[in-house]
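User: Hi! I have a protein structure encoded as tokens and I'd like to know what sequence might fold into it. I'm fairly new to this, so please keep things simple.
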């Protein structure tokens, strides 16, 4: 009968290692658990067999048998095409990775239904915890996961209808700062580009924009507001609509990096000198050749803060503490010489 460990594509088992080393399966298990009762000679023989066969223990199955978690942390985001989320993922992994936890990423495509399915799948796979950028206001599935003992941390957007740790950016304050900078340059017809109204960051940044205009005595013109674009192409089309108005805005405030890039393309195609202010810095922003100010923050830090909050819950150190809220500040960065109307 052929050796299963040598069959093409076969994954070596614990029994294969035991047979190769001439010991029992229990002895192999004890060696892998670093049991001090196993002799040095036996340990050396077993580890040599492990290396020769390329054996890797099925940690998920073992954890399930022991009634423990899987050693996995779920990260649920809305748009993997946006580099912001890759930086967020790096931040989470930089904190949980050194503690033996692996990060598994799921993409919801800004759909609550997809998010619900993803979270249910992660809970079914016994993840130790979940970091999520909620796709919308219906978060009953997140509340259910938390009620089942899976710690949930929200990033970039707050929990709705249930208590949970969360890390946010100062969306409102950053939007006020960006709008104030455009007003200081003399602009009064300022447009707004942002994701759908169901997105917390879009709502808060639009609120900051409107409040700042009102404080300056400038009437907000709803013709200049576009909420909805979630990718560069849609943002370019929306900006093009604004620029084609009989009396177009002289400046645009774009509430995320996808909208800023889309607006830049629209302005460049139209050959206009429309001033741009954005939220979220992005690579090559300094190479666009167009004056641009952005409200920047560290998206890695957003992820690492979320990872720290989750790790605290997993360790039990924050078991009796109420939900914690962390808000990261923004800072303005100016690329090129700003265009003033004064």
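Assistant: Happy to help. Inverse folding works backwards from shape to sequence: for each of the 342 positions I chose a residue that suits the local structure. Here it is:
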């Amino acid at each position: 009968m052929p050796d299963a460990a040598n069959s093409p594509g076969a994954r070596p088992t614990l029994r294969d290692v035991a047979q190769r080393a001439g010991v029992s399966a229990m002895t192999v298990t004890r060696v892998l658990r670093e049991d001090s009762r196993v002799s040095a000679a036996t340990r050396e023989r077993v580890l040599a067999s492990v290396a020769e066969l390329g054996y890797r223990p099925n940690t998920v199955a073992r954890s399930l048998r022991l009634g423990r978690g899987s050693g996995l942390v779920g990260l649920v985001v809305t748009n993997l095409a946006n580099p912001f989320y890759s930086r967020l993922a790096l931040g989470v992994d930089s904190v949980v990775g050194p503690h033996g936890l692996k990060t598994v990423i799921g993409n919801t495509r800004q759909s609550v239904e997809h998010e619900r399915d993803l979270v249910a799948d992660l809970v079914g796979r016994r993840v130790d915890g979940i970091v999520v950028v909620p796709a919308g206001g219906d978060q009953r599935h997140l509340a259910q996961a938390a009620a089942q003992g899976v710690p949930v941390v929200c990033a970039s957007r707050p929990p709705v209808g249930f208590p949970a740790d969360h890390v946010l950016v100062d969306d409102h304050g950053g939007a006020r700062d960006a709008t104030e900078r455009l007003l200081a340059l003399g602009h009064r017809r300022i447009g707004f580009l942002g994701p759908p109204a169901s997105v917390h960051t879009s709502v808060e940044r639009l609120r900051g924009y409107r409040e700042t205009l009102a404080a300056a005595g400038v009437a907000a013109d709803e013709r200049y507001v576009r909420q909805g674009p979630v990718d560069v192409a849609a943002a370019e089309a929306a900006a093009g609509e604004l620029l084609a108005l009989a009396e177009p805005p002289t400046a645009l405030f774009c509430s995320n990096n996808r909208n800023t890039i889309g607006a830049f393309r629209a302005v460049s195609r139209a050959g206009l000198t429309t001033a741009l202010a954005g939220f979220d810095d992005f690579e090559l922003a300094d190479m666009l050749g167009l004056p641009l100010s952005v409200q920047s923050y560290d998206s890695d830090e957003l992820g690492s803060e979320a990872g720290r909050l989750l790790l605290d819950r997993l360790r039990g150190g924050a078991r009796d503490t109420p939900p914690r809220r962390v808000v990261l500040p923004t800072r303005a960065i100016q690329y090129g010489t700003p265009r003033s109307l004064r």
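A useful reference point when you look it over: Residues 63-67 have pLDDT under 50 and may be disordered. Feel free to ask if any position seems puzzling.
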